[in-house]
Write a structure and sequence with these properties.
Rossmann fold; 217 residues; 37% helix; homodimer; STEAP_metalloreductase (chains A, B); 8-stranded mixed beta sheet; alpha/beta
Chain lengths: 217, 217
């Protein structure tokens, strides 16, 4: 499969690297075509790895992954261009995290979410929110955390969620541990989990953790 | 131990009933001394169970539990009176949930929390936020959910958190599953988990679930 990954930060490079490892073709997109991080990444990976603009990455991908921060996601996707997103599965793994006076904040929060904003701005993209509840290393190698634990998906398009679930299984998530929370509105729920994640991160001093949902049956 | 439980709803009655079962003395407090639910509860339980006003319950308790909703917690605690809270462990299990146009909302959210508001309003109470991440039946009988799973505590007073942890162990929580998230500011994190809890509740159709935190060691 051809993936366009928007964002050359740790999240984009982790996802891109793992997709390559799994045999996919990846274009890592950034604001400019000559972004040194992306070019170096593509050169080091060679073959199936490419660097380009947001628009080039989105155009190249059969599936597009938003791996830029939630607060700049809409800008990156506008630069990518609706014409390169329409009809495609658009995986949003971002959190709306910003720092204000040194304190982490979410924007938007509660009455809206990045996932919903993206779906509203690109009504013909098939947005699936997922993976934002774990660190980028755990996203692509869930085995870093022992035992079975959960990841969430939500979005309006059932077939898109199935396709993303298949990708999660490729990453190593057990299919039975992918919890479908329904429509894209549930992006609010998974984005608002971030403060608890940050609190636990502060407590543990390591991002290699996740939650397993336990229920009575 | 003598407990004052503020609130005669399902949460207050669950906590009160379980505390009685464990051999404690409980005064269930409400806005008026002749609240029929509280009086019936005290009559049915007899002996170590009492009903009274918020002030009577708080005065009677060596430990006070806020089991009214987060959006009315400060009103209930003001009615209870600072003089009946000062120096005491004040356990806050509430969530700032309200419904606006039929949609669940949190107030406060993100830049503040009920836990922090209570601690600010009653600086001499030893506030510990806990248990708000599970349904009230699971709060007092964690064995309703199979396996080991987690509950959080946060607050400014280390000794108060220890005392609350002992209470959680009485309820049936394994001591090793009580995660201390630090100061009362972490109340924001556990209160903002509510939308994810609500999403999962909607998905499962039962409140008998909880999360286990898994981490690499």
């Amino acid at each position: 499969m051809r993936y366009g990954v928007l964002g050359t930060g740790e999240v984009g490079r982790s996802l891109g690297g793992r997709l390559l490892e799994l045999g996919h073709e990846v274009t890592l997109g950034s604001r400019s075509a000559d972004n040194p991080v992306a070019v170096e990444w593509a050169t080091a990976a060679a073959g199936r790895a490419h660097a380009g603009t947001f628009a080039q990455a989105a155009a190249a991908g059969e599936v597009v992954v938003n791996a830029v921060g939630g607060t700049v996601a809409l800008d990156a996707l506008r630069a990518a261009g609706a014409e390169h997103l329409d009809g495609k599965v658009l995986v949003d793994v971002s959190n709306p995290l910003l720092f204000e006076d040194g304190q982490p904040r979410l924007d938007p929060v509660e009455s809206d979410s990045v996932g919903e904003r993206i779906q509203r701005a690109f009504p013909h993209a098939r947005v699936v929110k997922t993976l934002n509840t774990v660190n980028c290393q755990v996203m692509v190698k869930p085995g870093r955390v022992p035992g079975e634990h959960n990841v969430f998906v939500c979005g309006e398009d059932a077939r898109a969620k199935e396709q993303v679930t298949e990708l999660l299984v490729e990453f190593g998530w057990p299919a039975g541990r992918v919890l479908d929370l329904g429509g894209i509105r549930a992006a609010r729920a998974v984005e608002m989990y971030l403060p608890l994640w940050l609190s636990m991160f502060g407590r543990f001093g390591s991002p290699d953790f996740n939650i397993e949902v336990r229920r009575a049956v």
